[in-house]
Amino acid sequence: MSQLVRVQNFTVSSDGFGTGEGQSLERPFGHADPGVLFSWAGATASWHMRTAPGGSRGLDDYLMRDYARNIGVEIMGRKKFGPQRGPWQDVE
Questions:
Q1: Alpha helices by DSSP H, the chain
Q2: CA-CA distance, 84 to 92, in Å (whole number)?
Q3: Of 32, 48, 72, 79, whose CB count within 10 A is highest?
Q4: Three-state DSSP state, 44
Q5: Do residues 60 and 41 touch, judged by C-beta distance below 8 A?
Q6: In b/e form, how buried is each residue of 31-64, taking b as 16+ CB within 10 angstroms?
Q7: Taking the model in full, what pTM does it have?
């Protein structure tokens, strides 16, 4: 049987949250600090925005190196890029 769906690239904190409460346009992660939530990725040698040599190797680096490999489609929810709620508004 082949795999139909794979959840990938979803970061969850050690206490179990993917974003914080109280999202707003100014704080899209709510009370959570995205710098802390994603610090593991930025510390790897394969972090795509690395400007200096170095970075850690190991499992975290392996996950960052291959995070987009074999992804055919990305399903995005409405709140991926912001905390919008309620009815859709016309955009002009």
A1: 34-37, 39-42, 59-65
A2: 17
A3: 32
A4: strand
A5: yes
A6: ebeeeebeebbeebebbeeeeeeeeeeeebbeeb
A7: 0.61
How many residues are there in the chain? Answer: 92
- Residue 2 near residue 10 (C-beta atoms within 8 A): no
**Which tens digits make up the pLDDT trace of 2-52?**
666 767 677 777 777 777 788 887 887 888 888 888 888 889 998 888 888
Question: In 3D, which of 22, 35, 19 has the Cα closest to residue 85?
Answer: 22
In terms of Cα–Cα distance, which of 34, 40, 39, 36 is closest to 62?
A: 40
Residue 25 has a CB neighbour count (10 Å cut-off) of: 8
